Automatic annotation (TrEMBL):
Cellular component aspect of the GO annotation: plasma membrane
Pfam families the record matches: CUB
Domain CUB: 190-313
SMART domains documented for this protein: CUB (SM00042)
Gene behind this protein: 20210780
UniProt-listed InterPro entries: CUB_dom (IPR000859), Non-NMDA_GluR_Accessory (IPR053207), Sperma_CUB_dom_sf (IPR035914)
Keyword tags: Disulfide bond
Name this polypeptide is given: CUB domain-containing protein
Length: 353
């Protein structure tokens, strides 16, 4: 007789009084002991077992404490997807306890309850955040196909009940929901294309927006207009970690715009980073009917990324022949001035013959 997973899950829960939370996307089975007698305090370290099941999203089961524990309790959740997946983790209604004897809010993460999120960059395990206190909404994304969440309940804290809720997804679109994802480029993992034939305006954003963008990630946004169209881009929100010049070697994440395709750099376009781009650059336009925007993050520091609006605008055939930014009014005045100077020159020249 073959038993379904749900039937096996039900039988284990009935026999062992163990609450089984499935966290998978080819991923994880976490076993959390939760009895009314211990108030959620035992065992102090929660066990976990990795099993592969289908399921690309779900809700995380978080232990609920009904009494103050005599020792710290640590719960670790590990997420593992397949090679081309990223883990997207959202924390909601975070309400972590703190030590009443600690009045310095800076030290609350050291003495109170906390949540840490870790990602893996190459072989290096890196801490994305250390959360304490109260937060309404936080969203993170892994650098590769793995992520780890660590929750510690201190014995010195008295706040009981649910500490937070969490949702997870295993995604291949980097959390970018607009454009057409191009997966046919062998050396580019993140590319999205926008065509005026499918809409003359819209928005695009950094990976995982609104949330912290992933580390060590490069995404390309390619805009294709018709023959007599230009692309106009304006940033509605911009928080990309970096120094003022955004150059290589400064540990800066950046956004780069170019009239050329990959990998050519457009030296007329400055890199953008920091937080004041919205006020400084109201609108950026392309030279022709093609435009590329590149977002690149390094393996240190994080930001909330960007959201931008794009628009394809038609131009007249005369404007199409002019350099970018030059208007017909300015060209006409220059021609008139040249004509006047030429006329004066012809009148004066016979006097010297």
């Amino acid at each position: 007789m073959t038993l379904s997973f749900e039937r096996v899950k039900s039988m284990i829960e009935e026999l062992t009084n163990v609450n089984i939370a499935v966290v998978c996307g080819l991923s994880l089975l976490v076993l959390l002991v939760d009895t009314s007698d211990d108030g959620g305090c035992d065992p102090p370290y929660r066990s976990k077992t990795h099993i592969s099941f289908d399921g690309l999203e779900g809700h995380l089961t978080v232990p609920v404490f009904t009494k103050t524990c005599t020792s710290d309790v640590k719960v670790v959740y590990t997420f593992e997807g397949v090679a081309d997946q990223r883990v997207q983790l959202t924390l909601n209604n975070v309400s972590l306890g703190w030590d009443d004897t600690e009045h310095d809010t800076v030290n609350q993460c050291e003495t109170g309850d906390f949540i840490k999120v870790h990602v893996f960059v190459g072989r290096s395990k890196q801490e994305l955040t250390n959360v304490c206190g109260n937060r309404t909404f936080l969203k993170f994304m892994s650098t590769d196909n793995t992520m780890e969440l660590e929750y510690v309940k201190r014995s010195s804290t008295k706040i009981l009940g649910p500490a937070f809720s969490a949702n997870y997804k295993f995604v291949t679109n980097f959390g970018i929901t607009t454009g057409i994802q191009n997966k046919n480029q062998p050396n580019i993992k993140c590319m999205f294309e926008y065509f005026s034939s499918q809409g003359n305006n819209g928005t695009f954003s950094s990976p995982n927006y609104p949330g912290y963008y992933p580390r060590n990630t490069e995404c390309h946004y390619i805009f294709h207009g018709s023959q007599h169209e230009r692309i106009y881009i304006s940033f509605k929100y911009f928080d990309v970690e970096g120094h003022s010049n955004c150059k290589d070697g400064t540990q800066s994440d950046y956004v780069e715009l170019s009239n050329f395709n990959i990998p050519l750099v457009d030296r007329k376009m400055d890199r953008l980073c920091g937080t004041d781009v919205v006020s400084k650059r109201k609108e950026i336009s392309s030279d022709g009917n093609f435009f590329r925007v590149t977002f690149k993050s390094d393996d240190v520091y994080d930001g909330e990324g960007f959201e931008a609006a794009y628009q394809f605008r038609k131009i007249s055939s005369d404007q199409h022949m002019l350099p970018r930014g030059e208007k017909m009014v300015g060209r006409t005045s220059v021609l008139k001035s040249s004509y006047i100077l030429l006329s004066i020159s012809l009148l004066i020249s016979p006097l010297h013959s």
